[in-house]
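Why do we care about 3D structure at all? Because function follows from shape, and shape follows, mostly, from sequence. That is the central idea of this module. The next example makes it concrete: a single protein chain, its amino acid sequence, and then its structure expressed as tokens.
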Amino acid sequence: MWTNDLSVNNVEIDNEHKKLFNLLTSFYDGIKNNSPKLQLQELINGLLDYTKTHFAREEAYMKRIGYPEFEDHKKQHEEFIEKAQAFHTKISDGKMILSLEVTNFLKQWLVNHIKGTDQKYARFASANQEKVNQFSYN
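And the structure:
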């Protein structure tokens, strides 16, 4: 669930983070309500696709404002996508069932990443407002 302490003080990025939480909540609700496997796979596909889109946009933002820890941040994104993709493959191959374990991993990573790593670029952006003002997120 989204809370204000997750804000990175960028409306567009905050809105994307909120959408990620909404997608994750839909996936969680689907598991909890024993939704059909196909529906759950569609939900996780949507979550993964949107996550990739969000990461690309967030990375473009960090690059444009000259965020000095960009490469480390991008690596965390790549590692997450790899792990999430591995879950997806195991689920698709029938080697893992869709469970709250998957949802808990996704939620923990998202919350920890936003509260930790994303807050670093938010502080950098705040301290370098002139650079940020020259960048249009869209």
